[in-house]
Amino acid sequence: MILMHFNAVLMGCFFCFQCFYLVLPAEESIQEELGASRVIKRRLAHLQERDTPGIKETMPPTWWQKNRLDRMLVEYFLRAGYYNSALKLAKHSNIEDLTNIDLFMMSKEIEDSLAKCDTKPCLSWCVDNRSKLRKMKSTLEFNVRKQEYVELIREEKPLEAIRHARKYLSSAESGQVSEVQKLMGMLAFSSKNPENPYGDVFDMSNWQKLVLQFRQENFKLHQLNSTSVFTATLQAGLSALKTLYPLIVDVVFPCQLP
Fold it and tell me: Model confidence over 46-103: pLDDT tens digits?
């Protein structure tokens, strides 16, 4: 009887333990959704301000256009890597809630870590977004694991490289099998051998390729265009200016005067 009671207590504790670990992700998701809803509400209110009679009459005529331009510039600065300028402009114009500063700052941390050959933040991001990345048919996590394997070979740690490959690369998809086979062939050559046929795999520029791939897939994940709104607007304006002058046929320029 005591044993049955003890087993029931253990089962109850185990159930509570499982519920605790299910509640934590649920609470995090709820907080993320609440934060996103607040941002959407703030941006909708900003769009409505343009046609609000009370605000419209008390503010300068171009105030809304200026805020829109500042938003474009902040996003452009963030994409170009001018984070301090973007933060200062957003704070000065009071448009922090109207921009994607948090997203770009998180992206900056992961990009900086990859540039320093640190894969942990990027892999953590891949785990958090694994289901979405799988739908996108992303190869980022595979490429990061591949780079970890290459670094183990570079450090002359073949046994650790084999264990790493068995754990992370053995479940590669059909389209990646040939690449995994190529990686296994690297075990037969030293990274310090100048005649190593896998020299391109050891190229340190592969880290920069990971940075670019993460940036592109992060944009795609959050439905951001590869081109900033400021750049697209500027290109549209320049294209319109190019077509303006041929339409003016009655203008007499000074050089045409006799």
Answer: 667 766 766 656 667 677 788 889 999 999 999 888 999 999 999 999 888 888 898 9
Asked whether residue 179 carries a pLDDT value surpassing 60, the answer given is yes
- Torsion over CA: 149, 152, 156, 162 (sign): negative
Tell me the two tokens of residue 126.
């891949």
pTM assigned to the model: 0.74
Structure-token pair, residue 225: 């265009």
Q: Are 150 and 198 in contact (CB under 8 A)?
A: no
CB 228 within 8 A of CB 79: yes
Using the structure block, give the residue that is written with the tokens 């073949």. Answer: 158
C-alpha separations of 115 from 83, 129, 146, 205 in Å: 17, 21, 16, 10
Inter-axis angle of helices 205-221 and 140-154, nearest 10: 160
CB atoms within 10 A of CB 229: 16
Q: Which residues, other chains included, contact 63 with Cβ-Cβ below 8 Å and sequence gap of 6+? A: none
Q: Catalogue the long-range contacts made by 222-229 (C-beta closer than 8 Å, 24 or more residues apart).
A: 222/100, 222/103, 224/100, 228/72, 228/75, 228/76, 228/79, 229/72, 229/75, 229/76
